[in-house]
Fold this sequence. Notes:
Blueprint: H1 2-6, E1 13-15, H2 23-30, E2 38-46, E3 52-60, E4 63-65, H3 67-74, E5 78-81, H4 84-91, E6 108-112, E7 121-124, E8 130-134, H5 136-143, E9 146-148, E10 151-153, E11 168-169
Parallel strand pairs: 3-6, 6-9
Antiparallel strand pairs: 1-8, 2-3, 2-5, 4-10, 5-11, 7-8
Amino acid sequence: MEAAARKGVALDIRIMPESAHTAEEAAAAVQAELGQIVKAVVLVAERPEGRLMPIVCMVSGRNQIDLGLVAAVTGEVFLRGATALEAGDLTGYSPGGIPPFGHGRDVRIVMDQDLCRYESVWAAAGTDSAFFQIAPRTLRMLSNAVVAQVAKEFRRSAAAAPPIQPRLRFEVGTGA
Length: 176
């Protein structure tokens, strides 16, 4: 990707014969642990005038975003998950293929610290069938990410995954 090349990093992008629609499918495709898959989740911070500020959260494939932790790290009051259309408009990429850097506009990037436990991780390279392997420290540098705890381990069960709440409002109290 051009953004990496401009910073002197060559990426070995692997094109898979089939799309990977889930972190589990991506892990199987690249023969990696589920935790090594970088999920790029697009959140939006709503501004009073209706403008949306995109925040891309990179989390391990085995984890789930915690909007409260993201709010605490970013200082944003109104956070919600972006719709597929918003994610595409704000990053320039379709969901499932959103890379951790090289977006079409300025995007705030937050990287969950759990990704740093791996020697290397796998991220999307612009489509849901293209991936590259990278060291977490290089990923942080290329994406100019803030590294913090913004996810919790997702305990999978036979039941369906709980939906992401469409909107959370965090207000600073007066202490009363």
